[in-house]
Each structure stands twice: as C-alpha cells, then as structure tokens.
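Recap from last week: sequence in, structure out.
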Amino acid sequence: MNVDVIIVGGGPVGLLLAGELILAGVRPVVLEQLSERSTAYKANALVGQVVRFLDHRGLYQSFGGRGDRPQPAPAFLFGALPLKLSGLAENPLYGLQIRQARLESLLEQRARDLGVDLRRGHRVQELRQDDDAVTVQVQGPDGCYEMRTGYLVGCDGARSGVRKMIGVSFSGFTDPSIISRAAHVTVPASSISTDTADIALPSGDRIGLYAWHRTERGAYVVVPHEPGVLMVSVIEWDGPPITGEIPVSIEEVRASLHRVLGQDLPLAAPTTPGPHLLRRVYVANTRIADSYRHGRVFLAGDAAHVHSAVGAPGLNLGLQDAANLGWKLAAQVHGWAPPGLLDSYHAERRPAAERVTMHTQAQLALMSPGPAVTALRQVVAELLETPVVTGQITDLLAGSDVRYRTHPGTPHALTGRFAPDLDLRIGSRDTRLAELMRPGRPLLVDLTDASHLADLTGPWRDRVDLVTAHAPAPPADALLIRPDGYVAWALGPNGNDHLLEALGTWFGDPQ
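Predicted structure tokens:
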C-alpha cells in the first residue's frame, strides 16, 4: 500500500484534514487538480464554533483574530432581521474575518510545514475499492500513475468527482427562480460616509452598509471590500430569465440592484488589480449526500453538502467535518479505533448539515418578497426581542445546538457538546483549555485532583493525555475531550461515573 490516507481536494477542508492527520501521526497525500491555488473570491469570514476549534489548534491569532482568544459577536442577522446578542448570558456565535484565499494560503503553509505531501496538478481519474484498500488512477503533470490507499476522502467541492465515482446520491433541490448576483464595484467616492456607514443615492436617500436589506422586490447588501471597492450582492425572486451562455456583467448587477432597490446606484468596475468578484448563481441550491461514507471512501465539505450562503455557515460546517473525521481515521490507521467509530462520522456530521440547510432555507424564505412574508417578519422580529428565542437562534447559527450522541446512563449537560473555554491553573502556571488542545490528542482534564482517575485511565495513556488542573467555578469535576473539541464524558453532580465505558466507546480497548 502506497499511503494510509489520500485526500482529494486541496481547499480549506482538505488542508485542515491533512493537518489533523499529521498531528495524529498519519501522513496523508493530498491530490489537488489545480496547479496553483485559486485566487477566486469566495467566503470572507468564519462564523460559528470552528473559530474556537482554530483557537484549540493555536491558529486563531495567526489567522487574524483579535485578542488572546475568540470573543462572541455582539450582533448578527437572521433572515435580514437584527439579532442583538450582547445581552445573552451565553453567546456561542464567534466570528473571524478572513478571506478564503488567505485562509487557504495559511492552511497550505501550515500543512507543508507539518510535512503534508501536497501534489498540485494531480487529478483523480478513476477509483475502485475492495475489502483492503482503495486504488486510484491519477493524472499528474508527468503522466498517469496508480496509488493504493487504506482510505480516501473526497474534499473536492460541490461537483465532487469522488462522490460521483462512488455513486452516492446528492439529494435536495435547486430553485432556478431565485438568483443571486454579486460583484466588486466602485461608486462615487462622495456618496460614501464612513462616519454613518451608509451610501447616498442620487435621489438623496441613504442605504446602510454591512447588513442585508429586504424590500418587496428582493434583498441586497453592500459591504466595503478594500479602499475604494465595495462588494454588492443582490438576490431576486422571479426576476428576468437568464442563460449561462451570457457572462455576468457589472451592468447586469446594477440593473438587478435597481429592480430590488427601486432606484439607481451608479456602479462601475474597479480599477485596482484583481481578482474581482463577478458572479451569478442559483442561491437556493440545497443538497446533502445520502451517505458520508461508502466503504473506505468518505466525503467532507461541499462534496457532502451545499446550501445558501446566507448567514455564512459554509466553512463552519465543512471545516468541522474535517476536525471530526481526522482523528477517527487516524485511530483506524493506528489500529485502536473501536467498532463503529468511522460510522460515527456520518452519524454526527450529517445532522449538522441538515440543521444548516434548514436554517439557510428559513432565512432565505424570510428575505423573500410579498406581504405575507412582511407580516411573518414582523412576528419573527417580535420573537427575536425575547432572549430565549434569540439564544436558540444563535445556537442554531453557531452550530452549537447539535449534540453528538452520548454513552449510556445519565450524561452530564456538557457531554456531546463543544468544550467550554476554561481558564486553568496547573501548578504555578496559568493556561487555558484551548492551549492544552494544541497537540490534537484526546484529553482528560481532572479539575478536582481525583487520584483515582489516573489509575482508571492508565491503560489508555498511549492515546489519552491526563492533566490535573484547577479552574474557577469549574463546570464539571472532570472532562474527557475528543481531539475535535467535543466532550466525550463529564463528571459532575448531574453526571455519572461511566468513564471506562466512555473511554472504550471513543478510544478503543485498553492496551
């Protein structure tokens, strides 16, 4: 066998997965068909729990995060309605401003520093699998060659060739009547006010920057992109028919904005060096792979799910796929994975995708035209004034409403959820839980100095680290945390002492 794991696709999901495997002692090969990294404009931010996961890997600050740790956002939007988050007792919605091209660049450099074998200009043409391995035919710059691998992961995007080769259905729908047009543009400099964060229209009216606005004809957003350049995005329902044979233009975006806004905003193409965004897509494109696993082949990221970009959940969803799958594949390669561990990837991550497709469709519906929707928005806006409702919606947007399955018994409230950010003291040293997660290994944190935990976990010490620490007002007496940051077991007044069962469930038989 040539390699333990092949990753097809060198975008953010494939690169993060490669890094996770390296941390776990497995050296993958990444096959990327593009000879150079794409500079196309895609996402421009991370929103949700993945921001805290990057903090666990020590990447938050190097990726442009402010402060020593992620801070929750004070406000957000749901279906172009304001979400006021500053009053929430527990706000799980974290954000990190970073353009996807920059994110890919940093993840690629990290992967190469870790020793990942990244092969650009290599396209998988065929794959077949048997009980022992996956065989792939690859077209590289120097010709065709064959590789055999224990496992293969398709991180090759919405049009995934891997997904098609293994015959997994991509169930869902596409509504061609809902069209999004977006472009980087310039407007007369005199019309922009940085003090009030708005733009003056020729009519004298002003429209706000940053937030989505909904009218009775559609929805739009205008966001500063770089000095002198704005990003304009417009969504229309039942607009003029289009054909893919006609390239999108600035004039098309301007006309679309005019129809939605009801008046003109002079737009022109930027004069600064590109690449610049100019895109037309069906925004209501929602699909999920029927199975995330087919034998020894797995799907992650857009290869497993696509959805509307409203709310910016895509990278949060896809990168957490990689975090979830990486340590499980490594456990299988190393020979200590318990039965069913690889199947838990589909069982845990597909429901997460279902939640994202649900809330993005709901948000899109709330932004659609019509008096009935206007009335519905008034009802929802009133509900969002209630902290309980706002908290529930925020959990949904962050992905923190998904709770992974737990071991039998009466689980602690933290079990199955992403571990809380804890300030800790180990001996005379102050640290944080996030810093202890840097190596990417399973971690048992003893917060009460219970010596029996060391005796119980001794047979797993080759794969589970034990740390005794003290925390102000600890949420549990002890936490068993998986490499992806989720709590596998917790001990507390409302929990139970099924530690050995939890260790066996997630980390296999003792040595």
